[in-house]
Amino acid sequence: RKEVEQDPGPFNVPEGATVAFNCTYSNSASQSFFWYRQDCRKEPKLLMSVYSSGNEDGRFTAQLNRASQYISLLIRDSKLSDSATYLCVAPRKGTYKYIFGTGTRLKVLA
Amino acid sequence: DAGITQSPRHKVTETGTPVTLRCHQTENHRYMYWYRQDPGHGLRLIHYSYGVKDTDKGEVSDGYSVSRSKTEDFLLTLESATSSQTSVYFCATRTDMNTEAFFGQGTRLTVV
Asked: How far apart are CA B101 and CA B30, in angstroms?
């Protein structure tokens, strides 16, 4: 089983829709969690950190569910510009490795 | 954004030749990483470094070696390039184990 797993998608949604992605992690010792956005042929860029209490930034909300070992990303009022691949990271506590999920591709349609 | 520079940005090389990619950072970050990204596989960790001269293998390290002789530079070497190493290579850095990573712009390597 991979350390971090994501549904590759693509998720095709109309503009204005709400869409949610999950990312499951296998190691319960993970302490910090992150969501990245990657545009085609570009480097990944940090979208948001995921805290135990959740995190909200405008239309984006990230949640952590430790009991079920997953993090989620909710995007409200989707824009065409939200079309990208969304990657999650759940680094294992006490190690230096920084392992990504394979990413979830989102297409927002006009 | 962290100052992370990868060089070269694009390279075409022949099978069997050695290739070295460079990652240079100006942020004094302790941790540095090399990834490769291929369709259907996402970002896969090749090697990482947790300090000067301290490196370790990632998920897909076969055929690659790394060196870090100073904080700011992390080199990735393909000892004898193969067509299966055609990929986009990304470097990343972090300040500590609980923080996010920042990425360089990537190197597109083609082995013919």
From this structure: 11
